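Per reviewer request, we include the raw input and output of the structure prediction for the construct analysed in the revised manuscript.
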Amino acid sequence: MTYPALDIDEFLSVLPLKRSSPHHDAAAEHTVQWAKDFGIVQSQAAVEHLELTDTAACAVLMHPDTISEVTACDLADMYTIFYVVDDYIDEGPLRAEPEQAGEILADVMRGLGGTAPRSPAGIALADVFERVTEGYPLVRRRARMGFTNYLREISNEAADRAERRRNDLMTHIDRRRAASAVAPYMELTQPCLGFELPDWLYSVPDFRRVIDASIDISHWCSDLVSARRDGPDEAINIVNRIRDLTGGDLSSSWDNAKRMLHARIRFLDKQISQLHQVLEIGGCEDGLRDRTVLVAENMRDWATGSLQWYKSASSRYQTTQTCHEDQLDYFQVLPFREDAVFQW
């Protein structure tokens, strides 16, 4: 027995996509060429895999208030670099090789600032990270921290697979929140809106709950979509963590995961609806209060956009598409090159 295919419309009916940025085609054309220019994809198979992933759709669906075509292209590049690296580790031959994965990811992390990267992926990340965070120092620092945690977690997941380690349900959820790429990607909605929030807001419990719920919705939907492809033995999937906790069969674990996702969507809407009142009671000035609620609503938009992307026929999560190693020929792409050094 295996898991069924997920009908994402069941969740989009309660978390509907309200709008999207109009710059998909321009961003799609740009980001594939950008990936070629930086050498992070070289073969035709790698290019086709990137086109199927459709990172431009991530940019326009998850950041619907991106009015500028240039910003849409920048955001598409930001999704491109991390999906290439993530697929290389998670779906390629290094998915259970933490030491080799860690060596590659250490150089990619240099692309977030500091020591000059030497791999094409690290150099490409340095290029796009500078562009998307320029003029927003708080967003840059928070996003740098979030993406660094995320890259470290990719290596940790490889170690989990190598050691056949299966975390309990709450540890699994907490780790995904703490080291998810979703949080720093959601940070990038603020430059799209033309402002950045102060750091202290991130310690306000009600705002923090909006962030956590948005992360959970995206990850849990992703796990439900990919559960059929991943199978019941994949450690990094909440459906399997529920099965371990309850001792239930695949069918009941699947149903429980869906119920959790529905409940999380309801919780997110409730938190956003009361956030304005909570900030007002706390003495937050009007302009900052309105901006905070707008960012929270954009986090919900991000979660909705991710669901719409998972539904897309071009999404890498579709169970009808299988990623073989010969499609992920990033070996020639990520190792160090002596003649390629990014200078900060």
